[in-house]
C-alpha cells in the first residue's frame, strides 16, 4: 500500500535522501566502509561537517559572525542550554508563551535568571498568535517558537522585540521558507522534521553574544568550546549530521527555501480550503495564524473522529492523530511531503463528509 506520512517528527524525508543514506550505510562515497564505521576526526567526516555547516549558512544567508553547531540532546536541551549560556542570574529574559514547547523553555529558563512572560495565549488554548506585547528594553533576549507543532500556529511575521536580540526555536518550520534568519541572535532546531533524522540539533548562534554570563558552565554545555572545536568537541552524531547534510543538499537542489515555501503553500491551501468547506471538520486555529507545517482540527463527535482515524489507517495515512496533550487531529506537512498525499487525504475527508 502507498503510505502517506503525516507524522509530526520524526517525519517524512525525501526518498532520494533515504536512498543516499542507505547507500552510505553500506559504502560511504565508495571508500569501502560504512558511514557508521568511520571516525569523526577523519577527513571523510570533516568534509561532511564542512559541507553541512556551509549549507546552513547558505540556506540561511548568514555570514561568519554566526557559528553553526550540530549538537546532541534535542531541542529540549536547548531549553536549558540557551539560558545557561546567555542569561546572567540577575538579569531578565523575555519569553513568549504560545504553546507547550515555549512553555517548557520558560520552565528551564527560570532555573538560570528572571523570566518575563511577555505574552501568553493560554487563555484560548494557544489557538492564535498574540502579536501585541511589550518587551522590556533591558531584556537580554526574547525567546519565541516560530511554529507551534502541537497547536498548529505559526508566526507569519517577526515578533516586535525592539532592539532586544531574538532567539527562535524553529524545530518545526526551519528551512520551510525564506526567513530573516539574520535578524536572530540564536536559532535552534531538532533536525527530525525538515532538517533530517532524529539525533542531532542544529544551533546557529551569533558569536558576539557569548561570554557574558559569570556562572560556571560544564564544558559540554558551553557553546564556546564547541565553536572552537568546529562542532567536533566530542563525537558528534555522525550519521544524523550526514542525513542533515543530505537533506539540506536536497533542499538546495530542489530550488531552495523559496521553492519549499511555494510547495508548503500549495499543500496548506489545498488542505485548509477543504477544512473550511467541509462542516464536519473544524479548524482549531485562527485563520491568519495557521501553520503551513502542522494543521490541527477536530471532528466534534469523538466516535466519528475515531472512525475517520480508522479510515486513514486503512488508507495508509499515518500520523493523523493529534498530539496526546491536545487530542483531535493533526496533519504535519513538512518539506518532503508530496502534494499527492494532501490530495489523497482531502479526497478521504470529502468522502467521509458525503457519507454523513
Ligand atoms: N520545540 C518544538 C517546536 C518541537 O516541535 C519539539 C519536538 N517536536 C521540541 C521543541 C522538542 O524537541 P526534541 O524532542 O528534539 O527535544
TrEMBL record:
GO cellular component assignments: cytoplasm
GO biological process, one term: pyridoxine biosynthetic process
Pathway the protein contributes to: Cofactor biosynthesis; pyridoxine 5'-phosphate biosynthesis; pyridoxine 5'-phosphate from D-erythrose 4-phosphate: step 3/5; Amino-acid biosynthesis; L-serine biosynthesis; L-serine from 3-phospho-D-glycerate: step 2/3
This protein's UniProt keywords: Amino-acid biosynthesis, Aminotransferase, Cytoplasm, Pyridoxal phosphate, Pyridoxine biosynthesis, Serine biosynthesis, Transferase
Needed cofactors: pyridoxal 5'-phosphate
Pfam families noted in UniProt: Aminotran_5 (PF00266)
Residues annotated as domain Aminotransferase class V: 5-344
GO function terms (MF aspect): O-phospho-L-serine:2-oxoglutarate aminotransferase activity; pyridoxal phosphate binding
Alphabetical list of NCBIfam families matching this protein: PRK05355.1 (NF003764), serC_1 (TIGR01364)
Protein name: Phosphoserine aminotransferase
Amino acid at each position: 500500500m502507498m503510505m502517506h506520512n503525516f507524522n509530526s517528527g520524526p517525519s517524512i524525508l525525501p526518498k532520494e535522501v533515504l536512498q543516499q543514506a542507505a547507500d552510505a550505510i553500506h559504502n560511504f562515497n565508495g571508500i569501502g566502509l560504512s558511514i557508521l564505521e568511520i571516525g569523526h576526526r577523519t577527513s571523510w567526516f570533516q568534509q561532511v561537517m564542512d559541507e553541512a555547516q556551509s549549507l546552513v549558512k547558505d540556506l540561511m544567508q548568514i555570514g561568519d559572525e554566526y557559528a553553526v553547531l550540530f549538537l546532541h540532546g534535542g531541542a529540549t536541551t536547548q531549553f536549558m542550554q540557551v539560558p545557561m549560556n546567555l542569561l546572567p542570574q540577575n538579569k531578565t529574559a523575555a519569553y513568549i508563551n504560545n504553546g507547550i514547547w515555549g512553555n517548557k523553555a520558560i520552565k528551564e529558563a527560570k532555573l538560570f535568571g528572571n523570566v518575563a512572560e511577555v505574552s501568553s495565549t493560554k487563555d484560548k488554548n494557544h489557538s492564535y498568535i498574540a502579536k501585541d506585547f511589550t518587551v522590556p528594553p533591558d531584556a537580554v533576549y526574547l525567546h519565541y517558537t516560530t511554529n507551534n507543532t502541537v497547536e498548529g500556529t505559526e508566526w507569519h511575521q517577526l515578533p516586535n522585540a525592539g532592539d532586544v536580540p531574538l532567539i527562535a526555536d524553529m524545530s518545526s518550520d526551519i528551512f520551510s521558507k525564506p526567513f530573516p534568519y539574520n535578524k536572530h541572535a540564536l536559532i535552534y532546531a531538532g533536525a527530525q522534521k525538515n532538517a533530517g533524522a532524529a539525533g542531532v540539533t542544529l544551533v546557529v548562534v551569533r558569536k558576539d553574544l557569548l561570554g557574558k554570563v559569570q556562572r560556571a558552565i560544564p564544558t559540554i554545555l558551553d557553546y564556546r568550546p564547541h565553536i572552537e572545536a568546529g562542532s567536533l568537541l566530542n563525537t558528534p552524531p555522525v550519521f544524523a549530521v550526514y542525513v542533515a547534510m543530505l537533506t539540506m543538499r536536497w533542499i538546495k537542489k530542489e530550488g531552495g527555501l523559496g521553492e519549499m515555501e511555494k510547495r508548503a503553500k500549495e499543500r496548506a491551501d489545498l488542505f485548509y480550503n477543504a477544512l473550511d468547506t467541509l462542516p464536519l471538520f473544524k479548524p482549531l486555529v485562527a485563520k491568519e495564524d495557521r501553520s503551513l507545517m502542522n494543521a490541527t482540527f477536530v471532528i466534534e463527535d469523538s466516535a466519528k473522529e475515531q472512525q475517520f482515524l480508522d479510515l486513514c489507517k486503512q488508507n495508509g495515512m499515518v500520523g493523523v492523530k493529534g498530539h496526546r496533550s491536545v487530542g483531535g487531529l493533526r496533519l504535519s506537512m513538512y518539506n518532503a511531503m508530496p502534494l499527492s498525499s494532501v490530495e489523497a487525504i482531502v479526497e478521504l475527508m470529502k468522502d467521509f463528509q458525503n457519507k454523513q
